[in-house]
Specification:
single chain, two-stranded antiparallel ribbon, 4 strands, 63% helix
């Protein structure tokens, strides 16, 4: 056996490809946004890791790497981070220092979860990987139920109140710190149902109604006792703080900017609307939780999901909900008030995941998560600082800070010379550069494990069959068709908006192609999607029902594609098809290229209807990087490579060292970036700073004071 000193994944070319893969995904994520966009980036980088590892067992697991890598990176996208970037640019000293530290923290959590998901695919046994799919299906079923019932339940609780998922989402009675607590709660519900399903013959299942009823009765009784004793309102007031400062004065008028009654607080809105039901509802949830703590088995990876979902809810309660009571004068224990506090839930997910991995002999995953998190934290705050340096050239802000005022000859000369530089799409630079650093984080973390994790034998040595191979097919189809769908389907709304706006702008007298206005019986109007007829048949005389919306046509077509791919996979499992290669490397390369180019082309199509030269820094750069990645993913992986593995016996030492490095990294990097930034920009006194362009976490005009979310206003 040939022994090579350098693990293939640690080669410069390999690290570069993994970095550029995640950079492409991150640039596209910036356009499509949120969890599904980040999941695509993580998926692409995880595939590259498996292909470049030189380990045949990892290459065989390419669909798993793609699937779990996508899940891991998708979590972090629920965090709000634009506000901390603004903090770091504010010029207010304590806010800036806080901004750099908070930026590191968000990047750390995001990359830490991404590293955990990717490493789990490479470290866990085949049995663990296969087993977790059934609990996941139950969780997704619970989330589907949530999608179906959330709005109807909310409207039932507050009939006649208008709210949506954007500017008036805080008017939803289920709103709570703009956070995803309901998905976390329903994920926990999903694994509870799965646990009951797995324990079909267990007599302990019969105790659940008793625990639920006992909890509800106890909760209601305690609330009744508190009310009778005159303590209910006192307890409620002690556990409540307002998300704003009623004493804040409007600088323009010198009068209070808003009334206390118009502020949100740290509890769901329905708590205030239906206070009589709070006790039994909380008791019900605690009673059910107690039952599963005592009797739950949580087999086949369900326990991991329980740790993650439970960690989300516990951390959320500890920090912004209850912890804020002790920091009310500073806007609460919140990173980006008045924006989302999902960071707290994700801290709980990270903690729960790390604890579970440590307890279940998957300590390498926890170590890889820390490595990835540290580099990711340095990446987000470091790229932000790099962006600040690059924007310092010809910066009007620096000129003003130096006393060179707008309108002066020197000011006009310098700013006009650097105008094109300053107007570049710098946010896209930050997105793609940070994505590249995240790719390096994954390469380093998985490169650390590649030579320390024993080779897996996923095939049965007697039959040669692979256990649970349906999960392999499911993973491959998920990343190629489901993950891409949830991103690409967003294009329909973008096309509709941009093309309809273009028609209005040019005042073209043509039928409403994308949207049409209908008038209701009461005289009110509503803008609804247009209906497109089925070709030929739908246009016959008397046929007025064979039509659907643009979104309907998209879904119908994509559904046909899904069915076709399922038929092909089923046929291949029965009798291998010639078009699907036998080589694990070749299969992985095909999956990589399919996922890559579906999203690259969809991203280009998304921007095409509103094309502008500024898009070159995004779509053109992404396209060029995709060409480079295509060449590299074909040329760099070698068919047969030998990886010399020396199993690591003790990860505890690594873990302790990494935590010390994480603390040092956030402290040292924040101080360095903060100090250098202030040396370059030379900010004016606080009184002369622009309070409207930048966000402030602290100070008399902190954003949470000056611009809180008001019940009768738009969400910030």
């Amino acid at each position: 056996m040939q022994i090579k000193n350098q693990t293939p994944i640690r080669r410069i070319g390999s690290v570069f490809l993994i970095g550029i893969a995640l950079s492409i995904g991150w640039g596209i994520r910036g356009n499509f946004g949120h969890e599904y966009g980040a999941a695509f980036a993580g998926c692409l980088a995880a595939i590259a890791v498996a292909l470049l590892s030189g380990r045949e067992d990892w290459r065989e697991r390419v669909p798993y790497f793609a699937f779990f890598g996508a899940l891991g990176w998708g979590f972090g996208a629920s965090q709000s981070y634009m506000q901390v970037l603004s903090y770091a640019n504010s010029g207010h000293a304590i806010t800036q220092l806080y901004g750099f530290a908070a930026t590191f923290f968000i990047g750390f959590i995001w990359a830490g979860l991404g590293g955990a998901g990717t490493a789990f695919a490479g470290v866990a046994t085949r049995e663990r990987l296969v087993g977790i799919f059934k609990p996941l299906l139950f969780v997704w079923g619970a989330w589907l139920l949530l999608d179906l019932i959330e709005d109807p339940v909310a409207r039932l609780l507050q009939a006649g109140i208008h709210f949506d998922s954007t500017w008036s989402r805080h008017k939803n009675p289920l709103y709570w710190f703009d956070a995803d607590y309901l998905p976390a709660l329903f994920a926990l519900t999903g694994v509870w149902v799965y646990d009951l399903y797995e324990r079909k013959g267990d007599r302990n299942r019969l105790y659940l109604p008793a625990f639920a009823a006992g909890g509800a009765i106890s909760g209601g009784a305690i609330q009744l006792l508190l009310r009778t004793a005159g303590l209910e309102n006192k307890l409620a007031n002690a556990l409540t703080f307002l998300q704003g400062d009623p004493s804040y004065l409007n600088p323009a008028t010198g009068q209070p900017a808003y009334e206390a009654s118009n502020l949100l607080n740290n509890w769901p809105q329905w708590f205030g609307d239906y206070p009589q039901h709070v006790g039994w509802v909380i008791g019900l949830i605690l009673g059910i939780s107690a039952y599963f703590i005592f009797y739950g088995k949580f087999r086949n990876g369900a326990q991991l999901i329980a740790y993650m979902a439970g960690g989300w809810l516990i951390s959320f309660l500890i920090f912004p909900v209850l912890g804020s009571l002790f920091f009310a004068d500073y806007g609460g224990l919140r990173i980006t008030p008045p924006r989302s506090d999902d960071w707290a839930g994700l801290l709980g997910v990270f903690t729960g995941t790390s604890i579970w991995m440590w307890r279940n002999n998957l300590r390498p995953v926890a170590v890889a998560s820390l490595i990835s998190g540290i580099i990711g934290g340095l990446g987000l705050s470091g790229i932000l600082f790099t962006q600040q340096i690059m924007l310092s050239f010809g910066s009007p802000r620096i000129l003003e800070n130096k006393g060179i005022l707008p309108g002066s000859t020197e000011f006009n000369s310098i700013t006009s010379m650097w105008a094109d530089w300053q107007s570049q799409n710098w946010h896209s630079f930050l997105e793609q550069s940070y994505g590249f650093v995240n790719g390096i984080a994954i390469a380093v973390a998985l490169g650390f494990l590649a030579s320390r994790i024993k080779l897996h034998k996923d095939q049965d040595e007697n039959s040669g069959l692979v256990k649970g191979r349906w999960t392999m097919a499911f993973s491959a189809l998920f990343v190629m068709l489901a993950l891409t769908y949830f991103n690409v389907v967003k294009n329909v709304a973008v096309w509709s908006e941009q093309l309809s706006s273009e028609v209005v702008r040019k005042k073209q007298l043509i039928p409403d192609i994308w949207n049409r206005v209908i008038t209701h019986a009461d005289g009110t109007t509503e803008n609804v999607p247009s209906q497109w007829d089925l070709p030929y048949i739908g246009r016959l005389p008397g046929i007025d029902f064979l039509h659907t919306t643009p979104l309907g046509w998209f879904n119908l077509t994509w559904g046909m594609l899904v069915i076709a791919c399922i038929i092909i996979v089923v046929r291949h499992y029965r009798s291998p098809l010639a078009i699907i290669p036998k080589s694990n490397l070749a299969k992985g390369q095909i999956i990589f290229l399919i996922v890559l180019w579906i999203m690259v082309i969809a991203n280009f199509e998304r921007a095409l209807t509103g094309w502008h030269p500024s898009r070159l820094l995004t779509e053109w750069v992404i396209f060029v990087n995709a060409i480079i990645a295509t060449v590299l993913v074909i040329l760099l992986p070698r068919d047969s490579e030998t990886v010399y593995v020396i199993e690591e016996e003790n990860y505890r030492t690594y873990y302790k060292r990494l935590w010390r490095k994480a603390v040092a990294a956030i402290v040292v990097s924040s101080l360095i970036f903060f100090t250098l930034n202030r040396m370059i920009y030379q900010y004016p006194p606080y009184e002369k700073m622009n309070k409207y362009r930048y966000q402030f976490r602290f100070g008399p005009d902190a954003t949470w004071k000056a611009q809180p979310n008001l019940k009768n206003g738009e969400h910030k």
